[in-house]
Design a protein that fits this description.
It is elongated and about 55 Å long. Helix 2 (33-42) runs parallel beside helix 3 (59-69). By secondary structure, it is of the alpha/beta class. The longest helix has 14 residues, at 105-118. The strands form 3 sheets. A 5-stranded parallel beta sheet has the order 2-1-3-4-5, with helices on both faces. A 4-stranded antiparallel beta sheet has the order 6-7-8-9, covered by helices on one side. 39% of the residues lie in helices and 20% in strands.
Length: 232
Protein backbone atom coordinates (compact mmCIF):
# COMPACT_ATOMS: atom_id res chain seq x y z
CA UNK A 1 0.00 0.00 0.00
CA UNK A 2 1.31 3.46 -0.91
CA UNK A 3 1.33 5.88 2.02
CA UNK A 4 2.07 9.61 1.84
CA UNK A 5 3.62 10.98 5.04
CA UNK A 6 3.49 14.78 5.32
CA UNK A 7 5.83 15.57 8.22
CA UNK A 8 8.63 18.08 8.80
CA UNK A 9 10.32 16.54 11.85
CA UNK A 10 13.21 14.33 10.64
CA UNK A 11 13.11 12.06 13.70
CA UNK A 12 9.40 11.37 13.24
CA UNK A 13 9.88 10.77 9.52
CA UNK A 14 12.67 8.26 10.23
CA UNK A 15 10.65 6.35 12.84
CA UNK A 16 7.43 6.25 10.82
CA UNK A 17 9.05 5.36 7.51
CA UNK A 18 11.22 2.60 8.99
CA UNK A 19 8.40 1.22 11.13
CA UNK A 20 5.71 1.19 8.43
CA UNK A 21 8.12 -0.29 5.90
CA UNK A 22 8.60 -3.20 8.31
CA UNK A 23 4.80 -3.65 8.26
CA UNK A 24 4.80 -3.85 4.47
CA UNK A 25 3.80 -0.28 3.55
CA UNK A 26 5.55 1.85 0.93
CA UNK A 27 6.08 5.34 2.37
CA UNK A 28 6.69 8.57 0.42
CA UNK A 29 7.54 11.75 2.33
CA UNK A 30 6.75 15.46 1.94
CA UNK A 31 8.46 17.90 4.30
CA UNK A 32 5.95 20.76 4.06
CA UNK A 33 2.25 21.22 3.53
CA UNK A 34 2.37 22.65 0.02
CA UNK A 35 4.54 19.81 -1.29
CA UNK A 36 2.38 17.27 0.49
CA UNK A 37 -0.79 18.68 -1.09
CA UNK A 38 0.75 18.59 -4.56
CA UNK A 39 1.95 15.02 -4.12
CA UNK A 40 -1.44 13.92 -2.79
CA UNK A 41 -3.21 15.40 -5.82
CA UNK A 42 -0.69 14.23 -8.42
CA UNK A 43 -0.33 10.60 -7.28
CA UNK A 44 -2.70 7.78 -6.34
CA UNK A 45 -1.72 7.13 -2.73
CA UNK A 46 -3.84 4.73 -0.71
CA UNK A 47 -3.69 6.85 2.45
CA UNK A 48 -2.26 10.14 3.77
CA UNK A 49 -0.63 10.65 7.20
CA UNK A 50 -0.70 14.35 7.95
CA UNK A 51 0.90 16.51 10.66
CA UNK A 52 -0.98 19.67 11.65
CA UNK A 53 1.89 22.06 12.35
CA UNK A 54 3.67 22.17 8.98
CA UNK A 55 5.76 24.77 7.12
CA UNK A 56 4.25 26.71 4.19
CA UNK A 57 0.71 25.31 4.63
CA UNK A 58 -0.71 23.79 7.83
CA UNK A 59 -2.23 20.33 7.93
CA UNK A 60 -5.80 21.56 8.39
CA UNK A 61 -5.64 23.48 5.11
CA UNK A 62 -3.92 20.59 3.35
CA UNK A 63 -6.64 18.21 4.51
CA UNK A 64 -9.42 20.52 3.32
CA UNK A 65 -7.85 20.90 -0.11
CA UNK A 66 -7.32 17.14 -0.48
CA UNK A 67 -10.95 16.52 0.46
CA UNK A 68 -12.15 18.91 -2.23
CA UNK A 69 -10.37 16.85 -4.91
CA UNK A 70 -10.20 13.31 -3.53
CA UNK A 71 -13.20 12.87 -1.28
CA UNK A 72 -12.68 9.23 -0.30
CA UNK A 73 -8.91 8.89 0.30
CA UNK A 74 -8.31 8.00 3.98
CA UNK A 75 -6.48 10.69 5.97
CA UNK A 76 -5.06 10.34 9.49
CA UNK A 77 -3.79 13.30 11.49
CA UNK A 78 -0.58 12.54 13.44
CA UNK A 79 0.17 15.48 15.71
CA UNK A 80 1.18 16.68 19.16
CA UNK A 81 -2.01 18.75 19.49
CA UNK A 82 -4.31 16.82 21.81
CA UNK A 83 -7.11 19.10 23.07
CA UNK A 84 -10.77 18.46 22.22
CA UNK A 85 -10.75 21.60 20.09
CA UNK A 86 -7.75 20.34 18.09
CA UNK A 87 -9.32 16.91 17.62
CA UNK A 88 -12.63 18.37 16.45
CA UNK A 89 -10.84 20.82 14.15
CA UNK A 90 -8.81 18.01 12.58
CA UNK A 91 -11.79 15.72 12.06
CA UNK A 92 -13.97 18.57 10.86
CA UNK A 93 -11.40 19.44 8.19
CA UNK A 94 -12.02 15.99 6.70
CA UNK A 95 -9.60 13.68 8.52
CA UNK A 96 -10.81 10.13 9.18
CA UNK A 97 -8.70 9.56 12.29
CA UNK A 98 -6.60 11.57 14.72
CA UNK A 99 -3.59 10.19 16.58
CA UNK A 100 -1.54 12.09 19.15
CA UNK A 101 2.27 12.06 19.48
CA UNK A 102 4.07 10.29 21.07
CA UNK A 103 2.69 7.12 19.50
CA UNK A 104 3.49 3.47 18.94
CA UNK A 105 4.16 2.22 15.41
CA UNK A 106 2.10 -0.92 16.03
CA UNK A 107 -0.97 1.17 16.86
CA UNK A 108 -0.42 3.47 13.89
CA UNK A 109 -0.13 0.47 11.56
CA UNK A 110 -3.33 -1.01 13.02
CA UNK A 111 -5.21 2.23 12.43
CA UNK A 112 -3.94 2.42 8.87
CA UNK A 113 -5.19 -1.10 8.18
CA UNK A 114 -8.60 -0.16 9.62
CA UNK A 115 -8.86 2.93 7.45
CA UNK A 116 -7.73 1.04 4.35
CA UNK A 117 -10.34 -1.66 4.95
CA UNK A 118 -13.01 0.99 5.40
CA UNK A 119 -11.93 2.76 2.21
CA UNK A 120 -12.04 -0.41 0.09
CA UNK A 121 -14.43 -1.19 -2.72
CA UNK A 122 -16.61 -3.72 -0.91
CA UNK A 123 -20.29 -2.96 -1.46
CA UNK A 124 -23.16 -3.95 0.81
CA UNK A 125 -25.77 -6.13 -0.83
CA UNK A 126 -28.49 -3.77 0.39
CA UNK A 127 -26.83 -0.39 0.08
CA UNK A 128 -29.80 1.93 0.58
CA UNK A 129 -31.26 2.79 3.98
CA UNK A 130 -34.23 5.00 4.75
CA UNK A 131 -35.80 6.58 7.80
CA UNK A 132 -38.67 8.95 7.20
CA UNK A 133 -37.67 11.22 4.33
CA UNK A 134 -33.96 10.53 4.87
CA UNK A 135 -32.28 8.25 2.32
CA UNK A 136 -28.66 7.08 2.63
CA UNK A 137 -26.76 5.11 0.02
CA UNK A 138 -23.67 3.38 1.41
CA UNK A 139 -22.23 2.69 -2.04
CA UNK A 140 -22.25 6.28 -3.31
CA UNK A 141 -21.88 7.56 0.29
CA UNK A 142 -24.51 10.21 -0.35
CA UNK A 143 -27.42 11.09 1.93
CA UNK A 144 -30.60 12.91 0.93
CA UNK A 145 -33.34 14.47 3.01
CA UNK A 146 -36.49 15.67 1.29
CA UNK A 147 -34.65 14.90 -1.98
CA UNK A 148 -31.89 17.39 -1.11
CA UNK A 149 -28.28 16.20 -0.85
CA UNK A 150 -26.76 16.67 2.62
CA UNK A 151 -23.31 18.24 2.56
CA UNK A 152 -21.49 16.12 5.15
CA UNK A 153 -17.86 15.86 6.21
CA UNK A 154 -16.33 12.37 6.18
CA UNK A 155 -16.82 12.05 9.95
CA UNK A 156 -20.42 13.30 9.83
CA UNK A 157 -21.17 10.77 7.09
CA UNK A 158 -19.78 7.87 9.14
CA UNK A 159 -21.75 9.01 12.17
CA UNK A 160 -24.97 9.21 10.14
CA UNK A 161 -24.34 5.79 8.58
CA UNK A 162 -23.82 4.25 12.02
CA UNK A 163 -27.05 5.80 13.31
CA UNK A 164 -29.06 4.75 10.27
CA UNK A 165 -27.80 1.16 10.36
CA UNK A 166 -28.67 1.01 14.05
CA UNK A 167 -31.90 2.99 14.05
CA UNK A 168 -34.29 2.36 16.96
CA UNK A 169 -31.32 1.28 19.12
CA UNK A 170 -29.95 3.34 22.01
CA UNK A 171 -26.24 3.89 21.30
CA UNK A 172 -23.84 4.89 24.07
CA UNK A 173 -21.08 7.42 23.50
CA UNK A 174 -18.48 4.65 23.89
CA UNK A 175 -20.19 2.55 21.19
CA UNK A 176 -20.22 5.54 18.87
CA UNK A 177 -16.53 6.29 19.49
CA UNK A 178 -15.51 2.69 18.87
CA UNK A 179 -17.57 2.28 15.69
CA UNK A 180 -17.32 5.70 14.07
CA UNK A 181 -13.79 6.75 14.95
CA UNK A 182 -12.18 3.34 15.68
CA UNK A 183 -10.00 5.09 18.25
CA UNK A 184 -9.94 5.36 22.01
CA UNK A 185 -10.52 9.02 22.77
CA UNK A 186 -10.15 10.31 26.31
CA UNK A 187 -13.71 9.93 27.58
CA UNK A 188 -13.41 13.33 29.21
CA UNK A 189 -13.78 14.88 25.75
CA UNK A 190 -17.16 15.73 24.25
CA UNK A 191 -16.33 14.99 20.61
CA UNK A 192 -19.39 12.70 20.18
CA UNK A 193 -21.77 15.36 21.48
CA UNK A 194 -20.15 17.98 19.26
CA UNK A 195 -20.57 15.86 16.14
CA UNK A 196 -24.11 14.79 16.99
CA UNK A 197 -24.96 18.48 17.26
CA UNK A 198 -23.31 19.18 13.87
CA UNK A 199 -25.25 16.33 12.26
CA UNK A 200 -28.57 17.35 13.83
CA UNK A 201 -28.24 20.86 12.44
CA UNK A 202 -27.64 19.56 8.93
CA UNK A 203 -30.48 17.04 9.13
CA UNK A 204 -32.90 19.71 10.38
CA UNK A 205 -31.61 22.55 8.20
CA UNK A 206 -34.83 22.81 6.21
CA UNK A 207 -37.15 22.32 9.17
CA UNK A 208 -37.49 18.56 9.09
CA UNK A 209 -38.46 16.73 12.32
CA UNK A 210 -35.74 15.57 14.67
CA UNK A 211 -34.39 12.09 13.94
CA UNK A 212 -31.58 11.87 16.52
CA UNK A 213 -32.84 11.85 20.09
CA UNK A 214 -30.93 12.15 23.35
CA UNK A 215 -31.75 9.40 25.86
CA UNK A 216 -30.79 10.83 29.23
CA UNK A 217 -27.93 8.99 30.93
CA UNK A 218 -27.65 6.42 28.13
CA UNK A 219 -26.71 7.99 24.80
CA UNK A 220 -28.49 8.64 21.50
CA UNK A 221 -31.31 7.05 19.52
CA UNK A 222 -32.28 7.49 15.86
CA UNK A 223 -35.99 7.08 15.14
CA UNK A 224 -38.94 8.92 13.70
CA UNK A 225 -41.08 10.87 16.16
CA UNK A 226 -40.45 11.93 19.73
CA UNK A 227 -39.19 9.76 22.59
CA UNK A 228 -40.35 9.81 26.18
CA UNK A 229 -36.87 10.76 27.33
CA UNK A 230 -35.87 13.17 24.58
CA UNK A 231 -33.89 16.00 26.15
CA UNK A 232 -32.63 17.74 23.05
Amino acid sequence: MGILLVEDEPNVVSVVKRGLTDYGFEVSVAANGATGLQMALDHDFDLVILDVMLPVMDGIQVCKHIRQQKKMIPIIMLTALDSTENIVSGLDSGADDYMVKPFKIAELAARLRTLLRRGGSETLANNTYTIGNLVLNTESKIAYRSNEVLKLTATEYRLLEYFVKNQKKVLSRIQILENVWDIDFNMGTNVVDVYVNYLRKKLEKNGGPNLIHTVFGMGYLMKEGDTDEDTK
